[in-house]
Amino acid sequence: MNFPRDSLMQIGDLAAKAGVTSRTIRYYEELGLVEPEERTGGGFRLYSQSQLRRLRIVQSLKDLGFALERIRELFNLQNGAESGGGLAMALVAHLEEQDRHIDERIREYMLMRERNKKAIEILNGCLCCTVKVLERDCHRCETYRGHDAVPDLIECTIYESRAGLRSSK
């Protein structure tokens, strides 16, 4: 498609309008997600408004959790579909797969929330602790020992302070 030369933009202008870096655009170009409309005699990439729209679609789908490979597959679906129904069926399959990924992420976030709640519960019991940080051994504390599973965030902090205690002796 021929565009008037003055309506084309260089990669830096495209990046600024899309809110990404020039490096990101070059990476997307390597993956086949965007491509310049043409190149100048000096090798500069020139992009059209349609490439800007395509880049915004890529960013939007990426924000929704779609992997770049999946986005490329979505762009290529039209090429493999013989009918509108076939295209719709392929899109439904992709969206159902994305729903499964979303459900998995929701489960992971719920687990993270439970771990955070547990950490807050334990740490609320530590608010009245007056023992100096480098002199304490939380593993001997009743508040700490009263919990069967201590979240990693707390455990790594305690481990680091105990390691510091050993090295200062």
Structure overview:
With 169 residues, this protein is mainly alpha-helical. Among the domains are: 5-66, Orthogonal Bundle (Multidrug-efflux Transporter Regulator, Chain: A, Domain 2); 124-167, no CATH class. Helices cover 63% and strands 4% of the residues. The protein is built from seven helices and three strands. The chain has a three-stranded antiparallel β-sheet. Strand 2 (38-39) and strand 3 form a beta hairpin. Helix 4 packs antiparallel against helix 5 (84-124). The relative contact order is 0.07.
What tags apply to this protein structure?
169 residues; Multidrug-efflux Transporter Regulator, Chain: A, Domain 2; three-stranded antiparallel β-sheet; single chain; elongated; 7 helices; mainly alpha
Percent in strands: under 5%
At the fold tier of CATH, the topology name of the domain at 5-66 is Multidrug-efflux Transporter Regulator, Chain: A, Domain 2
The strand count comes to 3
Helix content: 55-70%
- Could you give the distance between the termini? 74 Å
Low-confidence segments, given as residue ranges, are none
Cα-based radius of gyration, to the nearest Å: 27 Å
Task: Work out the helix count.
Answer: 7
Main-sheet strand order equals: 1-3-2
- Helix/strand structural class: mainly alpha
CATH architecture of the domain at 5-66: Orthogonal Bundle
The biggest beta sheet reads: 3 strands, antiparallel
Topology:
Blueprint: E1 9-10, H1 11-18, H2 22-31, E2 38-39, E3 45-47, H3 49-63, H4 68-80, H5 84-124, H6 142-145, H7 152-167
Antiparallel strand pairs: 1-3, 2-3
